[in-house]
Design goal:
The complex is a heterodimer.
Chain A: E1 6-7, H1 10-15, H2 17-20, H3 24-28, E2 31-36, H4 41-44, H5 49-52, E3 61-65, E4 71-75, H6 84-96, E5 103-107, H7 124-151, E6 158-161, E7 164-167, E8 174-176, H8 177-181, E9 185-190, H9 214-218, E10 234-238, E11 247-252, H10 254-257, E12 263-267, E13 270-275, H11 278-286, E14 289-293, H12 304-310, E15 314-321, H13 324-330, E16 333-341, E17 353-358, E18 363-367, H14 372-382, E19 390-393, H15 408-420, E20 424-427, H16 430-436, E21 443-451, E22 457-465, E23 480-487, H17 508-526, H18 530-536, H19 541-554, E24 567-574, E25 577-587, E26 594-604, H20 611-630, E27 636-637, E28 640-641, E29 660-665, H21 684-696, E30 702-703, H22 707-718
Parallel strand pairs in A: 2-9, 4-5, 10-20, 16-30, 18-19, 22-23, 26-29
Antiparallel strand pairs in A: 1-9, 2-3, 3-4, 6-7, 7-8, 10-13, 11-14, 12-13, 15-23, 16-21, 17-18, 17-20, 21-22, 24-25, 25-26, 27-28
Chain B: E1 3-9, E2 12-18, H1 24-31, E3 50-53, E4 56-59, E5 72-74, H2 87-94, H3 104-117, H4 123-130, H5 140-154
Parallel strand pairs in B: 1-5
Antiparallel strand pairs in B: 1-2, 3-4, 3-5
Classes of the chains: A alpha+beta, B alpha+beta.
Chain lengths: 719, 158
């Protein structure tokens, strides 16, 4: 047992901006509050400047033990389906030695929860929970000390089980955490040294747990932002430009204002019609007449790739070793390819929604956002308020995938509420959702690689244009390689005709598609089975491990491609996690339609907190990935978005789902946990492209692999 | 202009004086306090707003409230039996057939109507029955299993 490091340093409390403004007992009632810090100052310095200034460096997080024995775990993370509401509770329960059922999760409320940049990057487990677990371990030690005082026994004679402290020498002498909290309003400050439990001591961590939020969700009681109601609340529908780059010149809303119950507010370019009924607000918006000037880029979804290659960019060397010319000389064959990937939307089923209540000296905003604290920063700056005056609450979020990191809708609701003096609900229509989405950027990848007759990769020159560098570095052991990323020039003109942003495993879907396709082409050139070819060119044991695991699960038998079987392989690394997929497809050579029949996936993510939750994410990634691979593409012309709803933007359907999705999680409980929410999506483009090749001998260079592209590739292959 | 509309909502006689052209979805959510039915696309394509109208799964975002006059409406809030989750709801929980949960009420209502018509659907029939409901998190394979297992559970009446 570990000696407690409890401390009650009140100078640090006084220095705290966060704590000064908070009377937690007023907000929370009685109990024992154990404060801790979720940030190491050295890590703060690594943050982008804009975020750094807001990060509290003191005790900004806490755990509350109530007298009913519940342990209340506060986190700035939000729940958007990824399941951390369950996995964080499992970890907290284990570190504190309480039952899983006694953990309450309080998430995404800026007034109560520790600062957090946002829920993205598959960081909740690998980063936040690191501090949370350490704090929970420390909290257990503090409670043990309190138990020692209460029972008048030395800590060395005490043990904890299910939230009850008892004497080892006489188990009848006991006191529960709840009893220690009874009638108390006690605050303790903990200096936490990371000393969480060893994986072998876990009870809940590593065990499969069903989602803890499913009952509320299946009975329709789970509250999302749009489900909140405030007295006097009005719905706002906002005037939108017809295209990106259009500028409002004049607006006439006199007809709208004549409608009963309608109010129109304007703040510069922001024109909104308000009504207590959303249908009436929508009807009024139709009557608003507006004129625009247009300044659109001359580009569409077909010309975008040429446009990107010609766009001004700055280049960055991501990785280099050896000498490309030397590698080329060693090669028997050099393959040069260019891969294309269009814009893809996040398309969560819950559109961006916000409810804002702006009062004279405070603002409360409920928002479907992946970043409640980022939203707080933006709104405070915009309305010229102190951070303490702005409270942002992210209830259940109906899907994010990176698209709800931006929070334009919350800013709109706050601006309108300030003018209107009423609580304002903004629910983006699906068309607004598609228009303002920060798409996964369209991108081009050029690869030039050399391979010997015996199947050794000697040279690898990988250039990605505007995809992002994540996942671009080669995972293979190539003696002569260079990876270069081309991106928008800092301070230069915006290249994309509209906003782009992080989309589940940003950059990595495009880069892995290109890399794994190119690898397959070299395997074909060498006449080697594509699995063996990969194993022959890998040194990384974790990658080898997941490839072998997936092959075993799939029951793979080697064959050089194209074998006619329609089996594809792809692998990669994302968020610290290694993944490998095998898939089998059927290609209808008459129509070009591709049906994915089977997918197996193996993942090495270090410690796995909740295998069940991990499998859900793996299946979710595989299913969602069918979309970017096979159908999803934003069609546009200049700044006009043609794919404005689900009738024109096709996301995966039930009939697309493979009959069999099999998953393997490698047993690596002794290793630190890595990301779980994104990695398995990165292989979907590559694995399907390679499976189509294996079925037909046709190579696809562009995503999505829509029927007409598949037919075209088959025609070329047969020519 | 406003009209008095009477209908049965989750088993209870309901009367509301309202503009009959308003959509059922928003009347349910704003006037009747039932926010379990969700807005997703507004054109009947995603299925998040699915409710049961006289045993048929219907998209409430496209339906003027006047259409329900004299008819029976059931929403996700009306599915539980004596306060206990319905077998379909239980099956969704047991199979973890959801992630963000936003499409879930619509999925469950569609499944309910499917099982009314076809109490013993094959996997293919479940897929066809659920096809027009969208889920972005990718819970499809579990939803299929949940609907099949609910069907087994519901055999011989619910």
């Amino acid at each position: 047992m570990k000696k407690t490091g409890k401390q009650t340093d009140n100078t640090r409390q006084r220095n705290s901006i966060n704590l000064k403004r908070r009377d937690f007992f007023k907000l929370l009632g009685g109990g024992i509050i154990l404060y801790y810090s979720t940030w190491d100052p050295s890590e703060l310095m690594a943050l982008p400047l804009a975020q750094r200034r807001e990060v509290p460096t003191d005790y900004n997080a806490f755990i509350l033990i109530r007298e009913d024995g519940t342990v209340n775990n506060y986190t700035g993370k939000i729940e958007m389906g990824q399941g951390v509401i369950t996995s964080l509770a499992q970890q907290m329960a284990d570190e504190m030695d309480v039952t899983y059922e006694s953990i309450n999760m309080i998430m995404g409320d800026t007034a109560l929860c520790p600062w957090d940049a946002g829920t993205w990057g598959s960081l909740t487990t690998r980063q936040f929970s690191h501090y949370m677990r350490a704090a929970a371990a420390e909290a257990r030690a503090v409670l043990l000390e309190m138990g020692s005082e209460y029972l008048e026994l030395p800590v060395s004679d005490l043990e904890v089980k299910q939230g009850v402290i008892y004497a080892i020498s006489n188990p009848k002498k006991q006191v529960s955490y709840g009893e220690l909290a009874r009638g108390k309003r006690l605050e303790r400050y903990m200096d936490v040294k990371p000393d969480p439990k060893d994986y072998t001591e876990f009870h809940y961590v590593g065990q499969s747990m069903l989602r803890s939020d499913s009952l509320e969700k299946v009975i329709g009681k789970a509250k999302y932002t749009g489900d909140y109601r405030l007295p006097g609340m009005l719905y706002a529908r906002i005037l939108r430009p017809p295209s990106h780059g259009a500028k409002l010149v004049s607006v006439d809303y006199s007809e709208a204002e004549k409608m009963e119950g309608v109010r129109v507010v304007r703040d510069d370019d922001l024109v909104a019609v308000l009504h207590e009924l959303p249908d009436m607000a929508a009807a009024a918006l139709v009557k608003v007449r507006a004129e625009y000037t247009f300044d659109e880029k001359d580009v569409n979804h077909k010309t975008i790739f040429k446009y990107l290659l010609e766009a001004p960019s700055s280049s960055r060397e991501v990785a280099r070793s050896g000498d490309l010319a030397e590698g080329e000389q060693m090669a028997d064959t050099v393959i040069e390819s260019e891969f294309y990937d269009g814009y893809v939307a996040h398309a969560p089923i819950e559109p961006h929604t916000a409810l804002a209540k702006v009062e004279s000296d405070s603002v409360t905003v409920w928002a479907s956002t992946q970043s409640p604290f980022g939203t707080q920063d933006t709104i405070a700056a915009l309305l010229d308020l102190d951070l303490e005056q702005v409270r942002v609450i992210a209830p259940f979020v109906g899907g994010g995938f990176g698209g709800k990191a931006p929070h334009q809708q919350a800013v709109e609701a706050a601006r309108i509420s300030k003018i209107a003096g009423k609580p304002i609900m903004v629910v983006w229509t699906r068309e607004e959702e598609f228009f303002y989405d920060t798409y996964r950027p369209a991108a081009v990848v050029q690869v030039r690689s050399g391979v010997t007759k015996s199947g050794k990769i000697t040279m690898w020159d990988f250039k990605q244009y505007f995809a992002g560098n994540r996942g671009s570095d080669t995972i293979y052991a190539v003696p002569h390689n260079l990876t270069t990323g081309y991106s928008e020039k800092q301070g230069g003109p915006q290249v994309h005709p509209f906003a782009t942003g992080a989309w589940r495993a940003p950059g990595n879907n495009t880069n892995t598609f290109a890399r794994e396709s190119q690898i397959d082409m070299m395997a074909v050139e060498a006449g080697t089975d594509p699995l063996q070819f990969r194993l022959d060119n890998l040194e990384d044991q974790q990658m080898i491990g997941v490839l072998k695991a997936v092959a075993e699960k799939f029951g793979y038998t080697p064959a050089a491609g194209p074998s006619g079987r329609g089996i594809g392989i792809a692998c990669g690394i994302d968020a610290g996690t290694y993944v490998a997929h095998m898939a089998r497809v059927k290609v209808n050579e008459e129509t070009g339609e591709v049906q994915v029949i089977r997918v197996a996936s193996a993942q090495d993510m270090g410690m796995c907190v909740n295998p069940q939750g991990t499998i859900l994410q793996m299946e979710g990634c595989i299913t969602m990935g069918l979309g970017y691979a096979l159908s999803e593409d934003i069609e546009f012309d200049g700044g006009r978005i043609h794919t404005g709803n689900f009738d024109s933007y096709q996301i995966p359907l039930f009939s697309w789902v493979p009959e069999k999705i099999e998953t393997v999680i490698l047993d690596r409980q002794h290793m630190p946990p890595q990301g779980g929410g994104e990695p398995p999506i990165i292989c979907m483009g590559g694995v399907i492209a390679n499976a189509i090749f294996d079925a037909t001998g046709a190579r696809l260079y562009q995503m999505p692999m829509i029927p007409e592209r598949v037919l075209e590739a088959i025609r070329k292959a047969r020519a | 202009m406003e009209e008095l509309i009477r209908f049965k909502l989750n088993g209870k006689e309901t009367a509301i004086t309202i503009d009959p052209t308003l959509t059922l979805l928003w009347v349910l959510r704003d006037q009747l306090g039932l926010t379990g039915t969700k807005f997703g696309c507004g054109i009947g394509f995603c299925g998040a707003c699915t409710i049961i109208l006289d045993d048929e799964a219907v998209r409430s975002c496209m339906l003027p409230v006047s259409e329900v006059s004299g008819r029976k409406v059931m929403t996700i809030e009306g599915l539980a039996v004596n306060g206990n989750p319905h077998p379909i709801q239980k099956a969704f929980m047991e199979h973890d057939a959801l992630q963000c949960g936003y499409c879930t009420p619509g999925m469950i209502m569609t499944a309910y109507s499917l099982l009314l018509k076809n109490p013993e659907p094959t996997r293919q029939e479940v897929i066809e029955g659920m096809e027009e409901n969208l889920c972005r998190c990718g819970a499809h394979i579990r939803i299929i299993k949940a609907v099949q297992s609910a069907a087994r559970e519901m055999k011989g009446g619910k």
